[in-house]
Amino acid sequence: VGGLEHAHIIIPLLETLARVEETVVREKAVESLCLLSHQFTNEAFEEHYVALLKRLVNGDWFTTKSSACGILHIAFSRVSPMAQTELRSLYKTLCEEETPMVRRSACANMKKLIPHMDKEVIKKEFVEIFKTFSKDEQDSVRLLAVENGIVIAEKLNEEENQQIVKPVISACAADKSWRVRYMVANTLCELCSALGKEIAQTDLLPIFVKLLKDSEAEVRSASSSKVTAIAKIVPIELTIRTIIPCIRALTTDESQHVRAALASDVMGLAPIIGKNHTTEHLLDLFLQLLKDEVPEVRLNIIGKLDQVTPVLGVDELSQHLLPAIIELAEDRQWRVRLAIIEYVPLLAQQLGANFFNDKLGALCMTFLGDCVYSIRDAATKNLKKLTQVFGDSWFKTHILPKVVELSKHNNYLYRLTTLFSINTLSSIVDSDIVTNDLLPITLDLLNDRIANIRLNVAKTLRLLIGVVDSGIVEASIKPSLNKLLEDKDRDVRYFASVALKCCKQ
Questions:
Q1: φ/ψ of residue 486, rounded to 5
Q2: Cα(147)–Cα(107) distance, rounded to whole angstroms?
Q3: Which tens digit of pLDDT belongs to each residue from 143-196?
Q4: CA atoms within 13 A on the CB side of 202
Q5: Which of 66, 295, 401, 479 could pair with 105 in a Cys bridge, judged by C-beta atoms 3.0 to 4.6 Å apart?
Q6: Spatial separation of the C-alpha atoms in residues 383 and 365, rounded to whole Å
Q7: How many CB atoms lie within 10 A of CB 372?
Q8: Which of 322, 340, 334 is nearest to 372 (CA)?
């Protein structure tokens, strides 16, 4: 449009879009107007941008007023103190609109406006608006008031929050609409931070306990996902006395979504309350969730096992959690088995080589023969991580014999997994192991009756070219690839030719 000095030319176009009834278009227009505001000088801003805001506020239709709410905080931050007074008056008229959509937009944008206000202005003008929003007849407005409470609380001291914000939040937590209670549950951590530790412990903790027992599953789910964050704020004794009894009830909640939300967060309590309290109060709950009938619950609890294992120690792990983990390794849901595989390397670090070999060594090899490809693929990566933890000598003693055994299995999938394992392991084990052990296994599969095996032999040999000495390449790998060049399967011939090109480079 000819430079920043002509930015105002775009305003009528965006103003037209900000007036349309389609919400998505209107919101995009507001977003663009917010971005455009930075292109104006102070004089041009008052002349064009503030004039636009006034036109939108004074529009006849709810769409213009809703859009005005979205840009008011931008205008407020750029104008003079006298103009700010006028804008606050305009905002107050928007908050008192009969149309619920306008009030909702005004309430939603209040949190953007408050940071630009002085504390005295907030107490004098905005606290009353905040309280009015929290009592609005529309629950879509009331639930947005909760977020405004966080922003207001950050501007006030603890005594003022006790008198102003806390009563409103308490009322919202007991609101007849579950959506409002859900919003309180979902923002409770932020509320605790904004209102201060004392209010959090004396007033918000009882609210949290009530929300954990709420009649609506959505509210219980939101609360359940916050147990660790709240436990960090309150003393351990209070957590054990007030929160853990609620958790115990939630582990058998009729809603699987509540149990899944709890499973995704409850493990974080272990580092907070320590080993003794975890063993006494939480361990049986963890085991119960690990055996839940719903796969999502089991998955969520497995995904957070790493938070518990450092706390419990080897004895408690082997006595209580390990049997449940071994049982889950045979779960009918492949995603649960996959989660167990991904957890195994961390468990290996906790248990040590000897204990791991006794309890989980055979299990890891079982995964290599799983009927699901994703499990077999993850199992090969798992072997790599375990070798990195325990070292090459452990690999030669415990893994290599099983890899050899797999390479001779009647089922071609096992033989194929052998090649995948070699591909993964060749990059981390000593080159002597690759030359003396892994390469011979690969060459033994050169004449396999399954074309897919021979094809993957070519792929594996291509990978090993970069690992072994050039003499071995010339003596063993190159002749083998030349033999595959004469294979009856064209795909095998293709991958053999690609590997041979690597020999020549």
A1: -100, 10
A2: 9
A3: 999 999 999 998 888 888 888 899 999 999 999 999 999 999 999 999 998 888
A4: 8
A5: 66
A6: 9
A7: 13
A8: 334
Q: Where do the H-state alpha helices sit in 156-213?
A: 158-163, 165-173, 178-186, 188-195, 197-199, 205-212
- Token look-up 């449009």 returns 1
Report the alpha-carbon distance of residue 89 to residue 325 in Å, rounded. 63
**Alpha-carbon gap, residue 438 to 418, rounded angstroms:** 10
Q: What is the pLDDT of residues 433-449, one digit of tens each?
A: 888 889 999 999 988 89
Asked if 164 contacts 156 with a C-beta cutoff of 8 angstroms, the reply is yes
Among positive and negative, which fits the CA dihedral 113, 117, 121, 122?
A: positive
Token pair for 323: 């049997």
* The amino acid at 247: I
Nearest of 184, 128, 193, 194 to residue 155 by alpha carbon: 194
Asked if 161 and 199 touch (Cβ cutoff 8 Å), the reply is: yes
* Helices 81-95 + 50-57 axis angle, to 10: 20
Place of tokens 């070219």: 465
Distance in angstroms (rounded) separating the CA atoms of residues 489 and 242:
69
Rounded Cα gap, residues 246 and 224, in angstroms: 9
Which residue type is seen at 229?
Answer: A
Tokens of residue 3, six digits:
């430079």
Cα dihedral 472, 477, 479, 484 in deg (nearest 10): 180
- Given the structure tokens 């908050």, which residue do they identify? 95
How far is 137 from 131, CA to CA, in rounded Å?
Answer: 12
Q: Are 376 and 338 in contact (CB under 8 A)?
A: no
